[in-house]
Each structure stands twice: as C-alpha cells, then as structure tokens.
C-alpha cells in the first residue's frame, strides 16, 4: 500500500528498501534457526517468587471458575426428544441427521463414530459393546472393545444405527473412508456433516444448545 502512494521516482527507492528488509529478515531467520534451545542451562532457569506466585494464582482462579460453572440439563425433555429422534415414522422423509443426533445423545459417542466407523453390539438392556474409537492420526481402533451405556433401550439404538448406515450418503462416506487415508477423511467428514448436525441440535434443543 505504501508503494502505491509513491510517484514513479520514489517508488524505486521504496522497492529497494523493501528488498533490503527481506534480505535482513532472511539472515535473521537463519540465525534463529541455528539457535540451540535445549541447552543444559535451560534446565536451571526458574521464575522469581513473584512470577511463580502470579502464575499459581492465575491457575487457581481458572480452576475455581471452571468448577463453579454449571450446566442445567432438562432430563425429561432430553429423554423424550432422544426417543423421538430414534423413532422414525416415515424413512422417506426422515433425515439421517435426526437419527445420528439421537444415537449420539443416547450413547455419548462422537459423530464420526456414530455415522461411519463405530461398531456397536447390544450386550444388555442399556449396555453396548463398542469399538472403533476415533483417533487423530493413527486410524481407527477396532482392537479395543469396551462397554458403553445408553440412556435409551440398547435394541432401539442398534436398530437406529442399522437404518442410519443404509442411507445413501452415509454408505458413500463409509466407502470413501475404506478407500482413502483416515486423517484426510476426518477433515472431509467434518466439512460435510458439522453444519447439518449442529443445525438439527439447535432445532431440537433450542437456546440451551451452543
């Protein structure tokens, strides 16, 4: 922007200054890149008493605030809406987002686990064997199975998962996951589902959801 305000003669000088600054920055970058930051002396550096006390006070205040924060949950409403989401009347008009939200509310599992990669098997009236926990970079963990609990009858949850996985869009995403790299798919999955799932959560939970 500064170059635009210069006349033709002045612009040349400003360009030279800019190029000079770029060269200096490159030299500085090389110097910083060569610094040894894991030197043994770093182990002996300590904060003074005032800095330590201030840091401890800040941490204690943050923890106190976190403990004092409460969330009011209307259990009867959540339960009734969860039951409704898992009870499609007409599958031709029932959104996959509704089923996915109901399953997530009932089981506490992440969206990608509910929609794509989780494996669920009923083992009790309200208990389910689960594997396929979402991991950042290491893929999908199907080796570890553990028991999870559902606030809705487990058989209704399992039935809803079977219906959900047969939606054309979900079947296509499952195939895409099996064909590609998991860490790339995580971003793709988020881009395709996050807005839709957030919208239906707001619709059913109202102002309490944020």
Describe this structure in words.
The chain has 210 residues and is mainly alpha-helical. 59% of the residues lie in helices and 8% in strands. It is built from eight helices and five strands; from the N terminus they run αααααβββββααα. β1 (119-122) and β2 (127-131) form a beta hairpin. The longest helix is centred in the N-terminal third of the chain and has 26 residues, at 8-33. The two termini are 40 Å apart. The mean pLDDT is 80.
Overall mean confidence score, pLDDT? 80
From N to C, what is the helix and strand string? HHHHHEEEEEHHH
Spatial arrangement of strands, main beta sheet: 1-2-5
Q: Bin the helical content.
A: 55-70%
Global structural class: mainly alpha
Low-pLDDT sequence parts: none
- Proportion of β residues? 5-15%
Radius of gyration: 27 Å
What is the count of β-strands? 5
Helix tally?
A: 8
Largest sheet: 3 strands, antiparallel
Distance between the termini: 40 Å
Task: Tell the overall outline.
Answer: extended
